[in-house]
Design goal:
Layout (H helix, E strand, L loop, with lengths): L11 H7 L3 H7 L8 H5 L2 H7 L4 H11 L1
Length: 66
């Protein structure tokens, strides 16, 4: 596991570049548009709001994967 914890202010683009396996978690949460241009600039927090996801659950799963 990475020493650095992920945070909700990271963009989806940063997340995917730094932690490619995070894509699996995003897909599990129903975020299939990971590669779209607007998602690249959206923060994890913004994306969770758009998709109606529980941010705390998403961050927990992402940090466990990272």
């Amino acid at each position: 596991m990475s020493e650095r914890k992920l945070n909700e202010k990271m963009t989806i683009g940063e997340l995917v570049r730094e932690y490619p396996k995070a894509v699996d978690v995003l897909f599990q949460f129903g975020m299939g548009c990971v590669g779209c241009p607007s998602a690249q600039a959206e923060t994890i927090e913004e994306a969770s709001l758009v998709h109606g996801l529980n941010l705390e659950s998403l961050m927990k799963a992402l940090n466990e994967q990272a």
